[in-house]
Structures are given as structure tokens and as C-alpha cells.
Amino acid sequence: MRINRAVRGRHRASGLAALAGAVVLGVSGCATSHLEEFNSVEMGDATPEILPTETDPAGQVTDLDSPVAGAVSLDDGGVALQLDDPDRVEFGHISGGKFVSDEQVELPDDALPIVASSDGVLVGSAEGIGRATADGGYEPIGDTGPVTAVAELEDGRILTGHADGTVAVRTSDGGENARLESLEGIDQLAASGNVGFAVSRADTTVASVYPDSNEIGPVLRPGKAAGVAATTDDGWAAVSDTTGNALMIFDADPLRLHQMFPVGKAPWAVATAPGTSIVWVALSGENRVVAIDISSGQGREVASLDTVSAPHSMSVAEDGSLVVGSADGSGAQIISPEEQKLP
Q1: 174, 227, 242, 255: least surrounded by Cβ within 10 Å?
Q2: How many domains does the chain contain in total?
Q3: Any domain includes 313
């Protein structure tokens, strides 16, 4: 992701100072009123909205027989969609602007949202963790016990989150190397290289996880309600602030809040476009996705497109297509690069 690195020098404030500065910068001309409104909202417990209204989605929509709980782009150019009722993952590809399923893998009951892996996708649940592969296989990994989040590092090690707020650093076969304490809970883990990024929604905290030194780095409490995080290969993390109606941009190593700006109502799913400075944000309160260019140090909306209802999962495929999954059963939406109309 290309971002103006001069931003580092201008935003070395941390904690509340960084938060306040970001809010003011993002609303030139109306900073005072927006800050007052922002401060009046209670913090924590981010949840997406579901609008009952019909939409006219951009691109094409593939009808599915159940809600979409997760969307992951695969290294081979394919796409994995996690579906509910029953819990399963559909491995497939994009053809003619639609999702075509090639293989189906049954998942454990109440599986967490799938995450990217070097081979297929990782899955966490009350049963532990496992890996589903595009050839139809599923293999449990180790004996981790129940997990609340999972992520794979670049070198194949695995991070797992647990209900007591700890993060376990594990070998690729699930063996526990270390158990790190610092957070109230772990709702999502993401990875950029060999650095982890943890989100706790109950108290809207985010933290860096350093598996090489077995440490949890700075813990910040930014925004009003941290929702979903997406990371880039070069160490950045974009996090939706669902209650604060904002997008937050962090440097994960060390953890610093660099940008924060309004994006629309109830942002939830976030996806980064590799090799670009574009962050896609799904607005669950508007049934809309927006493309934000963050290269200048202050987010700039460069595209806005209508989506399926309940756009709660999203990914950018290898060919640049945007994949949006509906959590209320309205299907999987594919928006080609041409239909995105990015500058």
C-alpha cells in the first residue's frame, strides 16, 4: 500500500491526543460540532447495522442459499466465501462478473469468520482451530481449546485469541510457544508480516502483538467502537469505527494512530487493495461501499457504490474485483475494477 510516509513525522502523538487531532483534521470547517457529537456517543461494543430497505447493487450479484459470514481472497486468484446454515466455506472463482463455486468444505458449528492462510483459510471455533483447503479438505490444527480469533503470520506461525483476553503464539502445527496477557478480550486478530494486530470490541481497544519478542505492544483506545481491521503487507492497519462513523489508520509497528476521518454511517467491513493506497469501507448503515485514498495523510473518498443489503464481509480479489458478502442472504456482490471507476 502506498502511503505518504511524511505522515509519520506529523502524527507522533499517541492516545487521546492523537484521537482528538485526527477528528479535527477530518472535518475542516465543522470540527467543533462534530467533536461534540462524537464525544456524546458511548464507547465500545461495535456491531454492524442491517437495513431493511432494498438496494440496487453495483456490479453483479450471485444468489446464494444462505447469508455470507466471511469473504477471503486467495493467493491463487480464487475467492473463499463462508456461508451459514449450515456452516461451510465455498471455494470458487470469479467468472463473467459472478462467483462460481468449485468446492465446498463443512465447518465446525459457530465458526468464526474465516481468515487468509498460505494454504486455503484458517477457521476458529469453540472446538479450536483448523484449516480448510481449496481441494475440499479440512484438518484440525493442534489442541488449542476454544478460541475467539485467529490469524496466520508470514512465517507460518499462528496467533490465537482467547476469552480471557490472552493471545497465544503458536507453531504452524498449533503448539503453544507463548501466552501473552494485556487485553480485556480478543475479537479479531490480523497480521502484517510477522507482526500481529488485535482488536477488542467491548472496550474499543487495539494493540500490536510482537511474536518474536513475545510481547503485546502499546494498547490504544481510539475512536468510539473499533469494529473490523484489515492490514497491509507493509505494516499498516485500517480499522472501522462503527459507532463513531469513521475510519482509523494505524502504523502497526510501533502502534500509532495516523489518520481518522468520517466515512459514513456504521462502517464495518474493511478491505485493502494490494499495491494501492485505496481502502474499501462497507457502510452497514447505508448499504454502500466507499473507496478511500489515504495516500495524502487525510482520507479522500474517490468512489461510492451501492451494495447488497447487510454488507458485513468484503475482500479485494487478485484481479482487483471487490467482493461484498450479504449477512442477510442477499448474495455475493462482485464489482469489477472497471465498474469501480476509481481515478
Answers
A1: 174
A2: 1
A3: yes
